Structures are given as structure tokens and as C-alpha cells.
Amino acid sequence: MDLSAAVWRKSSRSSDNGGQCVEVADNLPGTVAVRDSKDPDGPALLFTPAEWRSFVGGVKSGAFDRLA
Questions:
Q1: What pTM was estimated for this model as a whole?
Q2: How many domains does the chain fold into?
Q3: The organism sits in which domain of life (predicted)?
Q4: Looking at the domain assignment, is residue 46 inside a domain?
């Protein structure tokens, strides 16, 4: 998929200290792209908007929290 028109934004949970950050482009028709902000020319994961909403909902609900 051609991502040249993607408008990338950094996660609100990311900091500017060089840590592990992701960027999301959700301006593409029918696709949400996610990439590593430290490797902007590297690969991107592609999701449908429904898949992305499901993932974000799982994150917000704690479904992916690590168990102690």
C-alpha cells in the first residue's frame, strides 16, 4: 500500500526522550497505519478502522495489561 499521503501523529502516550514510540496515520480511506517513530522508513502495520477501534478499546479496558 502506498503510504505517501499518510499524515502521521505520535501517540499521546509517547514522550520526546527517545523511548518506545508509535505513530498512527488514520487519514487513509479504509486503513489505519501504525509505525515505529524511530524507524519512519521501516514497515507499517495496517488495520481496518474496525480492527483499530477494537484494539484501542482493548488497550483502554486493560485487556492487554501484563499480569504480575
A1: 0.81
A2: 1
A3: Bacteria
A4: yes
